[in-house]
Design brief:
The chain has helices spanning 21-34, 81-86, 109-124, and strands at residues 9-16, 41-45, 48-55, 58-65, 70-76, 91-94, 138-141, 150-157, 162-169, 172-179, 183-185. With 186 residues, it is α+β, with helices and mostly antiparallel strands.
Length: 186
C-alpha cells in the first residue's frame, strides 16, 4: 500500500503577469467548475480595493489590486496540480523559496488572516475619496450655489472626502464645506 502524502492544503501564491490577474482567476474558476481541478483547488482570490478619485469634477470609482502580479489560491497541492497551475496562461510560477527547485511556499495562517483582514478593511473604506489637494491651494468651485467662486483650501478631511474652502463673498471671507468633486484646481 502506498503511504498517504502529507496534507498540503493551504493558501499559496501564484505569480502572474501584471495586469492579467483577473484573466488567471477566470481561467482557474472555469477549470474548477468544468475540469478536475475542483477536487484540489478550492478558492481563487485577488484582493482588491475600491478607490474613489475625482476627474474633471466627477467621482470615478475604480478597483485596484492590493498585490499587483499575484493571485492567491487555496489548494491541496497533490498530483499534477502544480504542473497544471504553472502551465495556466499568464501564470509565471508559484511563489517559492530561494533554493532552486524548492516547493511552493504555503502562506502562514497569520499572513492569510492579515491578507483577508486588509481586504475587508479596504472594502469597509470603499467610500473614502483619495484627495491630492493641499492646504493653501487655490481651487474653483464648480458645483452648488457658489459655482464660479475661487478660494483657498483651509482644511482637508480625507476620511469624509470634504474640503473647507475660504471664498470671498462681498469682500468677506466665508468658509464653505465642499466635497472633493465639487472643486477643481486653478
Amino acid at each position: 500500500m502506498a503511504e498517504k502524502q502529507a496534507n498540503r492544503r493551504g493558501w499559496y501564491v501564484l505569480r502572474a503577469i501584471s495586469g492579467k490577474e483577473t484573466k488567471v482567476k477566470e481561467l482557474l474558476d472555469g477549470a474548477m467548475k468544468n475540469g478536475g481541478l475542483g477536487d484540489h483547488l478550492f478558492q481563487v482570490l485577488i484582493p482588491t480595493e475600491k478607490v474613489v478619485t475625482v476627474r474633471r469634477g466627477k467621482k470615478v470609482i475604480k478597483e485596484r489590486n492590493l498585490y499587483s502580479g499575484y493571485v492567491f489560491i487555496e489548494a491541496d497541492l497533490t498530483g499534477e496540480l502544480i504542473h497544471e497551475l504553472t502551465n495556466t496562461t499568464n501564470v509565471i510560477d508559484f511563489l517559492r523559496g530561494r533554493e532552486k527547485g524548492s516547493a511552493p511556499t504555503m502562506l502562514s495562517e497569520s499572513d492569510v488572516k492579515r491578507m483577508m483582514g486588509s481586504a475587508d478593511e479596504h472594502a469597509e473604506n470603499a467610500g473614502v475619496v483619495e484627495s491630492d489637494y493641499m492646504v493653501g491651494e487655490t481651487v474653483k468651485v464648480n458645483e452648488g450655489p457658489f459655482s464660479g467662486f475661487s478660494g483657498l483650501i483651509e482644511e482637508i478631511a480625507p476620511d469624509k472626502g470634504k474640503l473647507k474652502v475660504a471664498v470671498k463673498i462681498f469682500g468677506r471671507k466665508t468658509l464653505l464645506e465642499l466635497d472633493n468633486w465639487q472643486v477643481t484646481r486653478e
